UniProtKB/TrEMBL annotation:
<feature type="binding site">
    <location>
        <position position="267"/>
    </location>
    <ligand>
        <name>S-adenosyl-L-methionine</name>
    </ligand>
</feature>
<keyword id="KW-0949">S-adenosyl-L-methionine</keyword>
<feature type="binding site">
    <location>
        <position position="309"/>
    </location>
    <ligand>
        <name>S-adenosyl-L-methionine</name>
    </ligand>
</feature>
<keyword id="KW-0694">RNA-binding</keyword>
<dbReference type="InterPro" id="IPR029063">
    <property type="entry name" value="SAM-dependent_MTases_sf"/>
</dbReference>
<feature type="domain" description="SAM-dependent MTase RsmB/NOP-type">
    <location>
        <begin position="136"/>
        <end position="429"/>
    </location>
</feature>
<keyword id="KW-0808">Transferase</keyword>
<dbReference type="GO" id="GO:0032259">
    <property type="term" value="P:methylation"/>
</dbReference>
<dbReference type="InterPro" id="IPR006027">
    <property type="entry name" value="NusB_RsmB_TIM44"/>
</dbReference>
<dbReference type="Pfam" id="PF01189">
    <property type="entry name" value="Methyltr_RsmB-F"/>
</dbReference>
<feature type="active site" description="Nucleophile">
    <location>
        <position position="362"/>
    </location>
</feature>
<dbReference type="InterPro" id="IPR018314">
    <property type="entry name" value="RsmB/NOL1/NOP2-like_CS"/>
</dbReference>
<feature type="binding site">
    <location>
        <position position="293"/>
    </location>
    <ligand>
        <name>S-adenosyl-L-methionine</name>
    </ligand>
</feature>
<comment type="similarity">
    <text>Belongs to the class I-like SAM-binding methyltransferase superfamily. RsmB/NOP family.</text>
</comment>
<dbReference type="InterPro" id="IPR035926">
    <property type="entry name" value="NusB-like_sf"/>
</dbReference>
<protein>
    <submittedName>
        <fullName>RsmB/NOP family class I SAM-dependent RNA methyltransferase</fullName>
        <ecNumber>2.1.1.-</ecNumber>
    </submittedName>
</protein>
<keyword id="KW-0489">Methyltransferase</keyword>
Length: 429
């Protein structure tokens, strides 16, 4: 599929945003790139931030409802369009706008047709017209990609799959972590936020963090309540050292510094270190930052605690990143799990006797969570699980019988949900 419509042909109002949405979907679905990572390139040349936001919103809506949009398209075509046919991509874009983003059908099709660009315009027009005239609707909540639904049903059961479907349709709220945990009530009142735990604030989906009172002065940073748990489980760090492995963009680094730890943060990606530094500068928090590889890093001295927030499939953050469930293949999960095991073994070597090791992944795959910790414990007799006490966890989140914390879709649903996570706290003998 050729995907770069000539900018001159996209000059009609709203066309450039639709062309960018097409480039974004091509990047995610055909080239396996992350949606956020592909945005800058796909939206190049869009002068207005509204156009960039619209391109992102269209692509995200398509990704959240991809299987259901395709089922509607397939129900209206005599011959099935190939998965990578441009006509299919353009129909997804036009239908998503009409069925999900309140764009009037005439505007959705008028801005979509030029994208077909020498392809079967008549077919696209006909399929779109027959579906909209027939009053097509999409299932609510949307279906997950079939392979993901099957995998999660086997791992977690049908109720969790149903909860994942419900949360995949809703936009996630904005969660903040506060630099001054003791001022939670004061900040909640100031921002009109709810708080589900000390140091946590929740604001409605769509809230722009940069426009909040307190952002410039660095009073908080964006961090899902689940993502805040790993550092919470290390508690107060006055007078103690912690090695923060895989640290950027620094949500957990900031929590640890704010909790009094002396933090050494290791990150492999130079570009992400820039973001880590910018976050620390804004929040006026200080850590030692090192460019390094968690697979080989060997500190001169062991640490009181080590936090390994390992790179993972990220299937737990599908609410905020609707591309992950279409990109992550089973083979990638196996490879991630192998790397995580190697990183965990290396991280364990940096913990002082009597010290703490926290392992976390934002994944809903047992291979990257439960299985990784079980394999680690089977190989390392010098560590044991230290389950969190109730007071260490927000109301509504409990430790599993094995002593680790598994956050699944459905948890805190009435409050707006939480990202999928696995967290284990281990103590070295
Ligand atoms: C899940 S993110 C970490 C999020 C971070 N801890 C936070 O709370 O903001 C994983 C990070 O690991 C980094 N990474 C990947 N492989 C690595 C390696 N071998 N050594 C160190 N960092 C690595 C990635 O660049 C990415 O920034």
């Amino acid at each position: 599929m050729a995907t770069s419509p000539d900018p001159d042909k996209t000059a009609a109002p709203g066309m450039a945003a639709r062309a960018a949405a097409l480039r974004l979907l091509d990047a995610v679905l055909r080239r396996g790139l992350p949606l956020e990572g592909a945005l800058d390139k796909a939206a190049r040349g869009l002068d207005r931030s509204e156009d960039r936001a619209l391109a992102h919103a269209i692509a995200a809506a398509v990704l959240r409802h991809l299987g259901d949009l395709d089922a509607a398209i397939d129900g209206a075509t005599k011959q099935r369009l190939p998965d990578d046919a441009k006509a299919r991509f353009v129909l997804r874009i036009a239908l998503a706008q009409t069925l999900l983003l309140n764009t009037p059908p005439h505007a959705a099709i008028a801005t979509a047709l030029p994208l077909v660009d020498g392809g079967p315009r008549k077919l696209v027009h006909g399929v779109f017209g027959s579906l909209t005239r027939a009053g097509v609707t999409l299932p609510d909540p949307p279906n997950l990609p079939a392979d993901v639904a099957e995998r999660w049903a086997e791992a977690w059961g049908d109720e969790v799959v149903a909860a994942a479907q419900r949360s995949s349709a809703a936009l996630a709220p904005l969660d903040l972590s506060l630099r001054a945990v003791s001022r939670t009530a004061e900040w909640a009142e100031r921002l009109g936020a709810v708080s589900l735990a000390p140091g946590h604030l929740r604001l409605p989906a769509g809230t722009r963090i940069t426009e909040l009172d307190g952002f410039e002065e660095g009073a908080f940073w964006a961090q899902d309540i689940a993502a805040a748990l790993p550092a919470r489980l290390l508690g107060s760090g006055e007078g103690k050292t912690v090695l923060d492995l895989c640290a950027a963009p620094g949500g957990k680094t900031m929590q640890l510094v704010a909790a009094g730890w002396s933090v050494t943060a290791i990150e492999l990606a130079e570009s992400r270190i820039k973001r880590l530094k910018a976050n620390l500068a804004r929040t006026k928090l200080v850590a030692t930052i090192r460019l390094g590889d968690a697979l080989t890093y060997a500190p001169a001295e062991p640490f009181d605690a080590v936090l390994l927030d390992a790179p993972c499939s990220a299937t737990g953050i599908f609410r905020r990143h609707p591309d992950v469930l279409h990109r992550v293949r089973p083979r990638a999960i196996v490879e991630m799990a192998e790397r995580q095991r190697a990183m965990l073994a290396r991280a364990a070597g940096a913990v002082k006797p009597g010290g703490t090791l926290v392992y976390a992944v934002c994944s809903l795959e047992p291979e990257e969570g439960e299985r990784t910790i079980q394999a680690f414990l089977a190989a390392q007799s010098g560590f044991r699980i230290e389950p969190p006490t109730d007071v260490e966890l927000p109301t509504g989140i409990a430790a599993a019988p094995e002593g680790w914390v598994r956050i699944l879709p459905g948890i805190l649903e009435a409050e707006g949900g939480a990202d999928g996570f696995f967290i284990a706290r281990l103590r070295r003998n």
